[in-house]
Design goal:
alpha+beta, 5-stranded mixed sheet, 52% helix, elongated
Length: 364
């Protein structure tokens, strides 16, 4: 059970509320608050240990980072007292005392806890045994089962899963990392690394490694195709640095930094033409030749400010089954390796034909 002093701290600092709470902090423009979702079991000893750093995170926040916190009921079948404990927490939430009850639980004296919180006991007893409260707990459990959660605590931070106990410092690192990732995605849009009209019926996604010798001919083939389909095709570059190319990751970070200044395509064209120029001093020098502030560019690289943007592209490719570079998706249809002009044309024409057929069906 959580220490009484912790409950008093919570009661003093946290206004009564339901099973959600937010850390008051102004998010950076265009950056959503970091979303934290916890699936927990009130009879789980690991959840009991995790509850203290989790609540510290919720109450104190992390360096002013805006967060939203949601608790999800996930009583495990092996814990016979858990179901009623979660119903007690949900019943307390009906009177605005969820978190206070949360901090007292990890035991089974539910009515005594309700009385200590100043709840209306008659209403608490009715809610505790009501179908609606059971449905609240059951709905959260179903969410966890759909996510294939098998143990607690299980935490989701901006959709990424973390299983098991964490210290406050570890939670802080997770939240800070997600904030950096969200900021990088907000600051570097897909548009800054694309060519062609945004509403083009065909999108070519190219996953490429800037240190790979076969990326250059693949980009050349795609650029040639774009000239034949100036209004029908959009080209979207995806960063895909391979682990066995040691200079690739930083080269992609540099290219993404150049994208923020609108010089992405000039930057990668030079790198693909000069594969020996992927070391940090040469990347910074190239930025200067393209008219970018070298000091600012160097600082961004040293901080790895946009590493998360590169990683997001890489993970997107992995989820689509891509393992090598280059790989090209033509409206989702994949081509591995360097394509011929004829192959690209056939894929694009097929996509355009399917688009026309779809439009005709809609008109009927």
């Amino acid at each position: 059970m959580i220490a009484a002093c912790w409950s008093l701290l919570v009661a003093a600092q946290l206004a009564a509320g339901g099973s959600t709470a937010s850390i008051p902090a102004a998010p950076a423009p265009g950056v959503e608050p970091v979303e934290i979702v916890l699936f927990s079991d009130f009879q789980c000893p690991f959840c009991a240990r995790f509850s203290q750093p989790f609540r510290e995170l919720q109450i104190k926040g992390i360096d002013g980072i805006a967060t939203t916190v949601r608790f999800k009921h996930f009583p495990l079948p092996m814990h016979p007292k858990a179901q009623l404990a979660h119903q007690a927490a949900a019943a307390a939430a009906e009177q605005g005392k969820f978190w206070e009850m949360h901090d007292l639980l990890f035991g089974n004296h539910f009515v005594g806890y309700a009385q200590s919180l100043g709840l209306d006991l008659d209403r608490f007893r009715r809610d505790l045994d009501s179908d609606r409260i059971r449905q609240i707990v059951d709905a959260d459990r179903a969410d966890g089962q759909n996510a294939r959660i098998s143990g607690t605590p299980t935490l989701y931070v901006n959709g990424r899963e973390y299983v098991g106990n964490r210290s406050f410092d570890q939670l802080a690192q997770i939240v800070q990392g997600e904030r950096r990732r969200a900021r990088a995605l907000a600051e570097i849009s897909d548009t800054s690394m694309s060519l062609g009209p945004a509403n083009a019926p065909v999108t070519l996604e190219v996953f490429a490694d800037l240190q790979s010798p076969v990326s250059r001919p693949a980009i050349d083939a795609l650029n040639g195709l774009m000239k034949s389909y100036p209004s029908e095709v959009r080209l979207q570059f995806r960063n895909f640095p391979l682990a066995f190319h040691p200079q690739s990751a930083l080269a992609h970070e540099a290219a993404v930094t150049a994208a923020k200044a609108g010089r992405f395509w000039e930057f990668i064209t030079y790198l693909l033409d000069h594969p020996e120029s992927l070391r940090e001093p040469e990347l910074i020098a190239l930025a200067g030749r393209l008219g970018l502030d070298q000091a600012s560019f160097a600082e961004t690289l040293h901080e790895h400010r946009y590493a998360a943007r590169v990683e997001a592209d890489l993970q997107a490719g992995v989820k689509k089954g891509i393992r090598g570079s280059p790989a090209i998706l033509v409206n989702g249809r994949r081509i591995d390796g360097v394509p011929t002009r004829q192959m690209l044309t056939e894929y694009v024409e097929s996509a355009l034909s399917l688009q026309r057929q779809t439009e005709q069906l809609r008109k009927r």
